[in-house]
Amino acid sequence: MYQLAEKILQETDGKICKNCLGRKLSKTIEGANNIERADKVCSELDIDLDDVECVICDNLFDRLNEGLYEKIDDKINHLGVEFNTFLVGSKIDKDIQQRDEELSEKFDLGVETIKKEVNRLIGLGIWERYDKDAEFESQDIVFNVDLVGEPKVRIQINPLYVEGKYNKLKRGIPQTKWPCTKCKGSGCEECNFTGKQYPESVEELISEHFLRLTKGREAKFHGAGREDIDVLMLGSGRPFVLEIKEPRIRNLDLAKLEEEINKINEGKTSYHNLHLCERRRKAEIKQSSPDTYKVYNALVKCDGAFDRDKLDELTKLDEIHQQTPLRVLRRRADKVRIKHVLDLSYEIIDDRTFNMRIKTEGGLYIKELISGDEGRSHPNVGEILGVNAVCEQLDVIEVSEK
């Protein structure tokens, strides 16, 4: 059992610390930790390794002391950061890592690297002091400890993700902040030095409250699609994820915050079912699938009286070929998309006007379905009715869950 220990001691001329020796013996000698394994070797071979100068790590583990945790504590207090989960990363001298790897390779050990042990021991110390859990997949903060030279500590604050649904109850509000077209966001007379084309957005009307409470650096809004600025978002709402970058405060009463935000924004926007979510939800709510759909209510205005008998032909609409609409061509690839109408009904208002309720696959442009967009959308409402038709007013009634 101790033959390997003797070989390692011989290779290092007995100048190896208990952490390094115990780690190299982790697969051959039982013990709760590396120190306990090394103590067994010292007892069996009657040697003392307490004050040796380790030729592997340069006594690196002596630096994982109270002074290091005081630096960690000072950094936490300085930032005022809240966390429930954490991860530890470290920077170690490359020569130390190389010597550690060479010793493992010489005896074909396949044991934990010195960097992993350092991270684990620091993590254990943090857990003991703060009663917080180490989490490898998704964590609130990351402690980056630089052990090259004088120990330094940096804290990486990971984003906070809040999922929910929103309704837009007033026209003229974009989903996200639009930079001023003249100054590109830098501020000018035309935008009253706000840098914005519109004074408020669905994004800003919620994010400003989260940024204030979390003391976050920046917020980013991720919506499951978007409606035009002149379109209402009604019904159960559109799914979204709000990403708060570098939040120092994470423990929020979301139900109370939701109530306060909705009261402040009454008549403009409302937000529902706010809850924390994982990072992956950003992408998931944006992904389209064959089952996703949207339901709209469109007020259709024609330039002449339409044939009422032809309205029934609208209910038979199915496959729609849409070339990228002219109004979005500057920011979208010019290609033909094939989408489907899933259901359509109508209600006549007068001989030139009717309401149309339409259920479609996600991604079908309703305004162009009605107008034809100079022939880029086919078939379309105008050509079926034999008149020029436009969407006078549009509301989103339902956005299906992803």
Structure in a nutshell:
By secondary structure, the protein is an alpha+beta fold. The protein contains 12 helices and 14 strands. It folds into 4 domains: 1-56, no CATH class; 60-158, THUMP superfamily (THUMP fold); 160-284, Alpha-Beta Plaits, CATH 3.30.70; 293-399, Alpha-Beta Plaits (2-Layer Sandwich), CATH 3.30.70.
Description:
- The chain is of the alpha+beta class.
- It has 4 domains: 1-56, no CATH class; 60-158, THUMP superfamily (THUMP fold); 160-284, 2-Layer Sandwich (Alpha-Beta Plaits); 293-399, Alpha-Beta Plaits.
- Helices cover 29% and strands 27% of the residues.
- The chain has 12 helices and 14 strands.
- Strands 5, 6, 7, 8, 9, 10, 11, 12, 13 and 14 form a 10-stranded mixed sheet that branches. Strands 2-1-3-4 form a 4-stranded mixed sheet.
